[in-house]
Amino acid sequence: MAADIDRAKQAVRERVWALLDEHQAVQPPGAAGHIPSFVGSGRAAERLATLVAWRDARVIKANPDMAQLPVRVQALPEGKLLYMAVPKLATEQPFYLLDPTQLAAPFEDAASSTGAPSVAGRVGVQQMRPVDLIVCGSVAVNHHGVRIGKGAGYSDLEVALLTEAGLVNDKTTIVTTVHLLQVVDEPLPETEHDFSIDVIVTPEQVIQCGPARRPKGLHWDHLSQEKIAAIPVLDGEARRKCARQDPSGCRPTTSSTLGTRTNAPRHGHREDQGEQDR
């Protein structure tokens, strides 16, 4: 079943990537394999900034892909606190903290995945504030808010981590900015660990979706041991859970010590022109 869903998602990705290339709707050219850096991303960011949900948000979590760079840059001069995911969640503190009152670098540099490491500190989930609005990249999304990313799964993990920590809930607005060609008028495959989009923003229009669907936390049984081992924040949490369950002989790399059901962990983006695919 999971393999069938994965194949169905990949088929949608390949179709949308080809459509974007056909219409020369990505810049630089070549959509395949990426969260598309779509033409008009700056206008989509401007349109997003007119929404009440954006104006009311004081704390934003955003992906580090190039397509959403204009959104991140938009947030900082407006005084919003911005958390940006570390590419591949590759450090134990998996988010950059971009506080516009503390940044010395130009916002355009600070908000990029290449500039943030040199000017922004990293924070763990425990150090973060509740998030008002999440901005994510997508390959495809439909009018019901079902989203397909590049396939690495990092956006889903970020939302799940923040949900478990009580920093994201049903009142948190989740937005994606995309090209209109990425909005499909058809059912899309999804799993229980996928979150839904509340608002789609294109350069031309705003599409309200709903109802909201959120995972209650991490679905450990959907994660391979290799995936958990590769992401320090997951690896650490798996070890802590394992130690609580079996303090005397914890072996966190085995599913038997940690369980195999939802919310019981098993142990286990490519950079796109300076940005990360999700």
Offer a concise description of the structure.
The chain has helices at 2-22, 41-48, 52-56, 69-75, 107-110, 116-119, 154-164, 225-230, 232-245, 255-258, and strands at residues 59-62, 81-85, 95-98, 121-123, 133-136, 140-142, 147-148, 173-177, 183-184, 199-201, 206-208, 271-272, 275-276. With 278 residues, the chain is of the alpha/beta class. The strands form three sheets. An eight-stranded mixed β-sheet has the order 4-3-2-1-5-8-10-11. It has a three-stranded mixed β-sheet with strand order 7-6-9, covered by helices on one side.
What would you say this structure looks like, in words?
With 278 residues, the chain is α/β, with parallel strands linked by helices. It contains ten helices and 13 strands. The strands form three sheets. Strands 4-3-2-1-5-8-10-11 form an eight-stranded mixed β-sheet. A hairpin with a 4-residue loop joins strand 10 and strand 11 (206-208). Helix 2 (41-48) runs parallel beside helix 4 (69-75). The longest helix has 21 residues, at 2-22. Residues 253-278 have low confidence and may be disordered.
